[in-house]
Design a protein that fits this description.
The chain has 536 residues and is of the alpha/beta class. Helix content is 30%, strand content 22%. The chain has eleven helices and 23 strands.
């Protein structure tokens, strides 16, 4: 009944239908309705608090009052305003929102929040918190929030569902969520570090487990982290080494020493350094084959020490929740074969020396949404190499350039994507809108390409000239969170890349994904199907 409550898309439509409608946070009617709803919930059910979070997949509103504003300013400006109004009638109740995705940072536009506003700091990658760089950035964010909120109004929500990714078949042959684990996310020290620091700041925790339908998916694996979390929620001043030693002695008996070594090893070798990847949570488990096999070897040593006792059965449970050594080796072999075959047939792009791309070969993207059909709009690119930088010129045909309205968040409008695997790293991702706004990988992971994108518009096209700086191995190790690590791509030592374009559905236009190298499932994200890049 009130489409004006909902976000105005770049094509002029209101996002008021579908599974996840989007909000216009500057709309006065939505503000009043939200206040009325919360008061009704308090008066009718006497709830202690009411949550108001945007739905997943935040989409910015393009109305005049919202356009150009940061997501944190819009979401938290709205939430704080609602909280202040409700405070007039229900000062003892709490209004809560979440520091999440693109609105995870505390807004500079608000100095102090209403005293009845509470905050869930959600899904902040707790397993990575033993990495000092990651930890320092995270805790600085916490402290900024804490300075703006009333004391005690922070709660932690860490939905670590690492062990229920993907689908597999159960004993009855039915598809179920969650595959056997290749490498577990066990992180007791990271939990202890955060809970110790959050004492006096956070009310407590929720999440931190992998359950489906109220049942544990991998209780043997989860138990280790959850035990430490439980102990530190009761007493954050404990010593984590003493807690782990006690745990191993009591729970694994004669295999205590071997299990402590296995626990220390598995957490120390999580893949937490690859901050530039855009593939999400699975990165933590994307360890080399030799690391995954070493962990299994440590578990088997512990099993030998425990024998067939109850302690041995507990170790057997962990082993049973993981892919066997034989399966792991076979999978690694099959993946390497798939990559070799795919890359043997991958298209090759040849770039030129220097920044003048006028004589560089031009390559056209294909329709990945409907393979075999011509793209509805042509997209092409050229490549060059100039002073330790990759230069890409990407030209997108567009008959309605005057009506082109790039989205502030990049994703919800027209944009292009560049994915790169160099000799030193796999993989980088940049996504860029027609105004030259760049998103580097997953924005929560902290890597910045330091690339520059120069936008240009003609009568029937828009173009981006992108300069991506590249550094060698030593410089990359010294500063892993900035720039692309690699060497100049040559025929003998090429890069593997994909260039993609997303065309949004609009009027008679269909949504379409275009790629330089076609990918059957994951668009430009799958390095297996990247094309080859050489500079000659």
């Amino acid at each position: 009944k009130h489409p004006e409550f909902f976000a105005l898309a770049s094509d002029g439509t209101r996002l008021s239908t579908g599974e996840k409608p989007r909000e216009c946070f500057s709309n006065e009617g939505l503000f009043k309705e939200t206040v009325n709803f919360i008061r009704f919930m308090f008066d009718t059910y006497d709830f202690p608090s009411v949550d108001i979070w945007p739905a997943d997949g935040y989409v910015p509103c393009s109305c005049e009052n919202c356009k150009g504003k940061k997501p944190s300013d819009l979401v938290w400006g709205f939430t704080d305003r609602v909280a202040r109004e409700v405070y007039k009638t229900h000062p003892d109740k709490l209004i809560t929102g979440s520091a999440y995705t693109v609105y995870s940072e505390a807004p500079d536009s608000i100095e102090k929040f209403s005293p009845n506003l509470g905050l869930w700091i959600a899904n902040s990658g707790r397993p990575k918190m033993m990495d000092d760089d990651y930890w320092n950035a995270y805790f600085a964010r916490v402290q900024k929030w804490n300075s703006k909120l009333a004391p005690g109004n922070i709660i932690r929500s860490e939905n670590n569902r690492y062990h229920i990714q993907g689908m597999s078949e159960n004993e009855d042959g039915k598809k179920v969520r969650g595959k056997p684990v290749e490498y577990p996310v066990i992180h007791p020290r990271a939990v202890a570090r955060e809970l110790k620091a959050m004492k006096g700041i956070s009310r407590g925790d929720t999440g931190e487990q992998s359950q489906l339908g109220g049942k544990w998916k991998v209780p043997g694996i989860e138990h280790i982290t959850l035990y430490v979390q439980s102990r530190f929620l009761w007493d954050a001043d404990l010593d984590v080494d003493e807690v782990l030693n006690e745990y191993c002695e009591n729970f694994y008996g004669p295999a205590a020493k071997q299990m402590k070594a296995a626990i220390d090893f598995v957490e120390a070798n999580l893949a937490i350094k690859d901050t530039s990847r855009g593939a999400g949570k699975s990165d933590l488990q994307n360890v080399p084959l030799e690391v995954a096999l070493k962990f299994r070897e440590l578990l088997k040593e512990a099993k030998a020490a425990a024998g067939d006792s109850v302690y041995g059965k507990r170790i057997d449970l962990i082993l049973s929740e993981m892919v066997s050594e034989e399966e792991l080796i076979a999978k690694d072999k099959a993946e390497k074969k798939l990559v070799a075959e795919a890359r043997a047939n991958a298209p090759t792009a040849v770039g030129v020396e220097g920044s003048d791309l006028s004589k560089a070969p031009e390559y056209f993207l294909k329709n990945n949404s409907k393979v075999g059909e011509e793209p509805q709009l042509k997209t092409s690119f050229k490549a060059g190499w100039d002073k330790n930088a990759l230069i890409l010129e990407i030209t997108c045909k567009e008959p309605n350039v005057k009506n082109l309205a790039p989205a502030v968040d990049v994703y919800s409008g027209e944009f292009v994507a560049i994915t790169i695997e160099t000799q030193l790293h796999r993989h980088y991702i940049l996504e860029i809108n027609p105004d030259g706004v760049i998103l580097d990988g997953d924005p929560t992971r902290g890597w910045k390409s330091l690339a520059e994108a120069k936008p240009e518009r003609g009568e029937d096209f828009w173009r981006l000239t992108v300069r991506i700086p590249v550094v060698g191995k030593e410089e990359a190790l010294a500063d892993p969170k900035h720039r692309v690590a690699g060497e100049k791509p040559t025929p003998e030592s090429p890069w593997y890349i994909n260039i993609g374009r997303q065309i949004q559905k609009k009027d008679d236009r269909k949504q379409e994904i275009q790629l330089f190298s076609l990918s059957p499932k994951t668009g430009w994200h799958d390095p297996v199907y990247f094309g080859k890049l050489e500079i000659k």
